[in-house]
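Handout, section B. The chain below has 195 residues.
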Amino acid sequence: MPKRYEHEEGTNMYRLLGRTPAQKRADAIIHFERGRCAELNENYKSAEIFYRSALADDPTHAGTCINLGTIYYNRRNFKKARRCYRRAVASAPDWALAWFDLGNALDETKLFGESVKCYRRAVELDPLYADAHFNLALAYRKQGEIRKALEHFRIYVTIDDPGTLFSRSAQCQIEILKRQDLQVVTATRRVTVVA
């Protein structure tokens, strides 16, 4: 009996019909690796095609979701990026990177409350995830939560190499936020006169 194939619309990809779930997962890994190679060669259009093929075979492959989401993120298509990152989080809920990337996509669309939750989850899963602390501090600052922002900028500078641009930026933020926090505390103090 001849083998039958299906064609993925818009690509030059063909899949053998009637594959077992194990064969589909194996094919997904092959497509994922081809996508990574295409990305390394900066051929993002081909990478996207390979990643989409991988997800057609294994919709739960978290690495593929992350990489495809990053392609969309870099194209500033944050809606598609969020969808991919949400799939990654659903498939690998203990993967700090998935939460961090989802937080970034949410932050870009000004969903700061949701981005804070994602960054917090990332630092819960990996307390030494410096970038997650930095972005969490920025998100808290955008929400006006100065003390929480200060806390995470301080954590960041203890983790990151002190000579980096981001570490110096965090140090500057700490100084600025300390002054803002002092102004808030001073402005809210009430003077009580005892007669």
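Note. The CA atoms of residues 29 and 133 lie 32 Å apart. Compare this with the example in section A.
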